[in-house]
Amino acid sequence: MRPTWVEVDTGSIARNIERVRAAIPGRTQIMAVVKADGYGHGAVPVAIAALKSGATFLGVALVEEGIALRRAGIVAPILFMEALFPWQAPDLVRYGLTATVASYESADVLSESAALLGRKAKVHIKVDTGMGRLGLPPEAIPGLIRYVSGLPRLEIEGVFTHLACAESDPSMTRRQLGVFRDVIGSLAAAGYEIPIKHVANSAAALCVPEAAMDMVRIGGAMYGISPLGASPLGQGWQPALSFKTRVSYVKPVQAGATVSYGATYTAPAPQLIATLPVGYADGYSRQLSGRGEVLIGGVRCPVAGRVCMDQVMAALPPDADVEVGDEAVLIGAQGNEAIYAEDIARIMGTIGYEVVCAISKRVPRVYVSS
């Protein structure tokens, strides 16, 4: 019933994965990262589309996210990529999620839960090569691998690290890759051959071919959102998400009239103001007050005044022929114009990922396939 919605094109997701596949070696697996409800796109539909398009692994940040995928009937391997708390271990094992192990303690609790449930748990060992977020330092990895290998209920399936600056600092990226290769070499020399070695995120998969290894972890690129900074990915990449609403009210105002909280917008001349039933509670940031634009009738219309919790106003051009019920686009294309997540990110001083992840759960998602 709501006149505000997000439209997700699963066909765009499929085509973006095809572009990634063309950029990496044929033997390299693709992990589709569907954490944060698929970057706001909807984890289950995105996961299904990604797996149909050649992804073989899924990545999540919450145990609950993995459980939701399992309950939706998805049987593909799912890597829980964060640190494990003891009380999460039973559900992680019960639902067949692959664990990230970055400490002896997490290996112990996982092994205990697997034993209690009569199952084996697959694990990926996390190496900190310079991100400074999660994982043991390189020199500690052989000892951890040796310890985990001795736990009968755990199977080491992978070892991985995360690149801190793949989109911006080639020298640091080379250093991290070198450190990770040294770790792999020392493990091989000790007789440990780990099946899946993975390093590359979206930025590295597109810009650092040697980082592909056995698997790449694709987030932003799969959704058509740039991992490379403030500019859209460019020709051939297709943003999968559009954020839309409908005009709920059209009001003529006189020169000097003010609009919205704080009276920060003053009409410079007689004009029309369109009210849209969407606001910061929906994820259209208050930072866009007086700075953002929306598309109405294929024309860019500036946001007039402050974004409210549930409504935003837009100043219409003098010759506008706009009626209640007309479509307005906050993110996406209309006519010959387009507003990208990256455009909004530049205004807000952030990245496109945050823009789409911030779209509220109260905004319904509608799925199409072009």
CATH superfamily of the largest domain: Alanine racemase
List the strand order in the largest sheet. Answer: 8-7-6-5-4-3-2-9
Structural class: alpha/beta
Strand content: 15-25%
**CATH architecture of the largest domain, please?**
Alpha-Beta Barrel
Shape by Cα distribution: elongated
Q: How many DSSP helices? A: 12
Radius of gyration, in angstroms, nearest whole number: 24 Å
Helix content, binned percent: 25-40%
CATH class of the largest domain: Alpha Beta
Per the CATH scheme, the topology name of the largest domain is: TIM Barrel
Distance between the termini: 24 Å
Major β-sheet, in short? 8 strands, parallel
Number of strands: 20
Average pLDDT for all residues: 96
Highlighted features:
370 residues, alpha/beta, TIM Barrel, Lyase, Ornithine Decarboxylase, Chain A, domain 1, 8-stranded parallel sheet, 7-stranded mixed sheet, 12 helices, 30% helix
Outline of the structure:
The protein is an alpha/beta fold. It has 12 helices and 20 strands. Strands 8-7-6-5-4-3-2-9 form an 8-stranded parallel sheet. Strands 1, 10, 15, 16, 18, 19 and 20 form a 7-stranded mixed sheet that branches.
